Amino acid sequence: MLECLDIHAFKLIEDIHIDFKEGFSVITGETGAGKSIMLSALSLLLGGKTDSSAIRKGYESASVSGQFFIDNRDSDLLDFLKLNNVECVDDTLIIKRVIKSNGRTLSYINNEAVNRTLLAQLSTYLIDISAQHAHQSIMQSSKQLSLLDNFGDTLLLLEEYKKNYQDVKDLEKEKIKIENIINSSRQQEDYLKYAFDEINSIDPRENEDEVLSDNIRRISQFEQIHDNVSYILEVLNNSYEGSSTINNLENCTQMLDKISQKDDSIGNLKDRMKSCVIEVEDIYETLKDYVDNMQYSQVELDEMQSRLSQLQKIKKKYGPSLDNVLIFKESIDSKLNALTNGQDDIIFIDKKLNKSRQELKAKAEQLSTERKKAALKLSSSIEKTLRKLGMIHATFAIDFTKEDYHLAGYDSIEFIMSANPGIEKRSIKEIASGGELSRVMLAIKATLSEKDHVSTLVFDEIDAGIGGEVATNVAQSLQELATTSQVITITHLASIASKANNHLLVKKYVNEGQSFTTIVELDSEKRVSEISRMLSGDVNSKVSIDHAKSLLD
Q: Which of 478, 490, 473, 476 lies closest to 534 in space, CA to CA?
């Protein structure tokens, strides 16, 4: 639902803030006051195109900002927001469009810059404007199909079809993947066999090159390592001059023990020294085992270096790392296996694919049959509503075209109608009269009010060429529609304006030689005056005032 609208420096508007309420709202005003500017501002907000000529004279930029309440029951809208990573904060979305003097337009959702395409897609979930050449999601064939499925209760059948459709697509992708592998492998078969045999003959193991390098480095430094460790052992246990290090530490421990008997504060140092002796003795024994087990083999070193050379060779050809070589070997094995067994896999997939396609065809035909039944009921209902709205000769139908299978079946539909006898039905997109189009939209919306999730509906020129009972019927339909959606209508008829819950007045005035358009919400007293003006053009006429009061009552 549209909660409020802020317009700055847009055409004749300088700065206005408009609060919109639930239910049925009307916008009225004298001819030329600027009611069309409101539609232009809304169309801009919804992703419409414009240029710098829309900027009010004296300003560098213009902007339109709208705040929307998002119903958490609107699953389609919430899914769209999630898919496009748009966060809804406190059930609110704020959309803003800015026009720069250089002609550029900027789009924002919740202060995050977005492209105009995303904004236009989002807006189809928020507002429908029924006016000539205006923004209308219902003009899209996909939207019409969605509405028909909702109306005809074929959604469960559609979900079953979608599952079949996805199964077919997955199998087709799998088949293409195998075919591509086979074709690619066949072209490289000789090379693949050679590479596999070469790698397999060497039989590399994971991280083998790293282990070999470490061992070669250790054996290559055998003499230096042996001499250094031997020196350490000599120092620790066999001193060149005097006692060994371990003996000296033991002597120190004994002295500290004697001292601690005379001074308790030294006891801690004695214990620490004793621990040092134990630790050094352990180090000595470990190093002694290490040097005793050291072996040097030139043959072993040569073998290791030869093996590492083999690994380096295949790394250079198929690497760069040994892990890459092993992965490459697995991929070769897969491709060669595809050459051997791939055709059997394709035959198996084809069997599954044929079965899935038959199931898909059956579901698509069933779905189309049910849709056509629903289309007859929907068309009849819309025709009845059109006649009630003054289009007594109107005929309405839903045209079906069979297309290639797609995510929603094989149906493409078009809402078509004729407003006059003897005139061939055409797409509702081609209806020339804005008033006719608005009434057609009202009839469709009224019939589908519980199925269409667009929460805000805007009607313009809906009163063109009507009056009397028809105008009353239009007003009643708008009232009924407003029980499930927010309805905003621009009208010249008092019989329609008087039925609204909320009334906004567009006014134009001149100040210091400049024209300004503004919009205000009318209270009960001012509303009587505006309805009176709409009835007779005379706000002071007692007859008009009494008539206005009776309409409002």
A: 490
Six token digits for residue 128: 């429908």
Half-sphere CA count of 6, side-chain side, radius 13 A: 11
413: β partners: 400
220/298 Cα distance (integer angstroms): 9
Q: For the packed helices 141-151 and 155-187, what is the interaxial angle rounded to 10 degrees?
A: 130
Asked if 37 contacts 12 with a C-beta cutoff of 8 angstroms, the reply is yes
By C-alpha distance, which of 509, 501, 488 is closest to 527? Answer: 501
**Segment 375-421, tens digit of pLDDT:** 999 999 999 988 888 888 889 999 999 999 999 999 999 999 888 88
Q: Is 548 exposed, middle or buried (0-12, 13-18, 19+ CB in 10 A)?
A: buried
- Separation between Cα atoms, residue 138 and residue 145, nearest integer Å: 10
Decide: helix, strand or coil at residue 212.
helix
Q: What are the CA-CA distances from residue 419 to residues 396, 439, 512 (Å)?
A: 9, 11, 48
Q: Of the candidates 224, 221, 217, 223, which has an alpha carbon nearest to the alpha carbon of residue 305?
A: 217
Rounded CA-CA distance 81/272 in Å is: 68
| DSSP assigned state of 261 | H
- Contact yes or no for 163/359 (Cβ under 8 A): no
* Residues 316-336: tens digit of each pLDDT: 988 899 999 999 898 888 777
Q: How far apart are CA 125 and CA 47, in angstroms?
A: 13
The model's confidence at residue 121, banded by pLDDT at 50, 70 and 90, is confident
Residue 434, pLDDT score: 62
pLDDT value at residue 135: 52
Helix, strand or coil, per DSSP, at residue 402: strand
Q: Which amino acid is at 202?
A: I
Amino acid at 339: L
Query: What does the alpha-carbon distance between residue 514 and residue 313 come to, in Å, rounded to a whole number?
Result: 85
Residues in the chain: 553
Q: Mean pLDDT throughout 465-493?
A: 87
Backbone angles phi, psi at 518, to 5 degrees: -140, 170
Torsion over CA: 194, 198, 203, 208 (sign): negative
Distance (Å, whole) CA 44 – CA 9:
13
- The model's confidence at residue 93, banded by pLDDT at 50, 70 and 90, is very high
